Fold:
Amino acid sequence: MTITSHAASVRFENVTKAYGAVVAVDRVSFTIEPGQLVTLLGPSGCGKTTTLRLIAGLEMATDGHIFIGENDVTKLPVTDRDVSMVFQSYALFPHMNVNENVGYGLKVSGMKKREAQERSQEALRLVGLSDLGERMPAALSGGQQQRVAVARALVLEPQVLLFDEPLSNLDAKLRRRVREEVREIQQNLGLTTVYVTHDQEEALAVSDRIVVMKNAAIAQEGTPRELYDHPANSFVADFIGDANIVEGTILGGGGETANVRIGCLEMELPCRSASAGPAKIAIRPEAIRLSAGDHGTGMRGTVRKATYLGNHLEYTIETEVGPLFVSDPHVEAPVAPGEIVGVQFEHRGVTLINDPSDDAERASESSPQ
Amino acid sequence: MMSFHRVLHDERVWSFALVAPALVTVGLLFIYPLGFSAVSAFSAEEGGWTFANFIKAFDLYSNDILFTVVIVSLSTVLIGFFAIAIGGYLTLGENPYAVAILKWLYRWPLFIPFIVAAQLMRTFLAKNGLMNNLIVGSGLLEPMQTQSFLDWRGIVITFVWKQTPFVALLVAGAMASLDRSMIESARNLGASRIRILVEIILPQVRPTIVVGLILSFVVMMSVLSVPIMINAQTPTMLTVDMAFRINAYGDYGVANALGFISYLMTGVVAWIYLRQGVRQGAAP
Structure:
């Protein structure tokens, strides 16, 4: 007996979830294609877990529609949705052994005992725990408990598999290994998976697509590369990886690019329909090149802080556009604090932020209180 | 000889001094009366040891002993059932208003003394009591068809009404402390609420239920006011018999023998309680 996939798409159409006056999810729309792993990423309180719980049916939408496959499941109770969830705390039943935990959903569904046992065994084999069926959850490590929770979700062959911050209770090394295992199982079985995390590195590592959420709404949606290379706003730029957000000026442009001045430097950056005037620019720390010594022309900066981190150096450089955080792979030639360095920007890793919401935020920040 | 200074700095002395008031209280108010009562039960009036009090107690009150065991056991079972139902609804109920009302209401009987509860039940369960008046008023029964519940049923109803909140309080607390995601996980796996209660929640709060029921059992064994006010006729409970032996005959020997039999019954459940405590690490 093998575990197979019944992957279905997930579609949100203007879904809102409000608790009284507090709106946890605000008119959110997105589509997840069958067999994709999509991560809901964002800071605490942004609405990502509520969105996941809306898919599971653990919360009911206040407004809008949720589709799984072609079925409108908006009003369907949790027990009637073909969706399995792996909880942050794993939520294993402590009085049942591993076999009983994994087979519980099958038992509830009325499957014959023998068939359920075979299916549970197969699920445990998939997560590499075939020999631990008789163990109680308390006798398992955190990583093993996490895999039991995955097996318990997989065994039902759900249309959609949900993960609510599944790695947050694991140490850093184990987290990396388990996330690779989760991704491998998802890809091998072709499962539609929705994954919630606040860890951007985890999101970049496991996802086909990422939905970045902020203040109960979607800030940007795209592939990991799209989000990293072309953040739509300063929030996404700063949340997906590190970014220096600096003020610049659009000098002019047309078509797909714009001429931008950053301090004393001028660059041509990709941007649609940019109008001349002040703008925000996101600069990745690894897109900043430093050259030792006073270079006369070009941007210069003073090293305020230098930190050695084994495979790279991190600097804080004071420049005319403000302090810049720099990640430099040239560990063999460190620059000491206090030294003057030349500063240049590579094209990849510098993004013109052309989002009106950023302007609105800037206006609200500068307006008198 | 230990000097006064050394005694003053001996931690054991201070530790003992700290627990001494509690020890004295337990000794004077529990160990001494218990021991005295046990010794009296086995003592003849003219002196010496005897089983005569026990033989007389069994001759006169064997039906009441059985009655007491049955009444208290039945009440314990019903208390367990209702406490689980209340705790289960408070934990799994989906109507927030119903949950809030139940949460507010169910604890009230906790604050009503047994004797007041018994008086309430007398007016409620009598042939012309409030319950029958309501039933007759609603047209379900004719006045001649009504019957009094002031018998064994009245005792059971009063015990259950009075003790269910206590056990429900413990059980609901234990249920509330369970990881909520475990319940959500079971729902996500397709389990109904009844199934979650029976298969997921109850096995985890079983020790608390057992402790609550044992404590209730012991309390009901010692209540005099309820059986004496609701059902003083034969058969009745051992507490009524003990009061009768003392008040009517001054027969402390048989009263103490009946008391000793009560100790044995509660001793069995106390043993279960202690075993439970050892299993859990420490009894609450």
In short: Chain A touches chain B at residues 56-58, 78-79, 83-85, 87-89, 91-95, 104-105, 108-109, 152, 156 (CB under 8 Å). The longest strand of chain A covers residues 22-32.
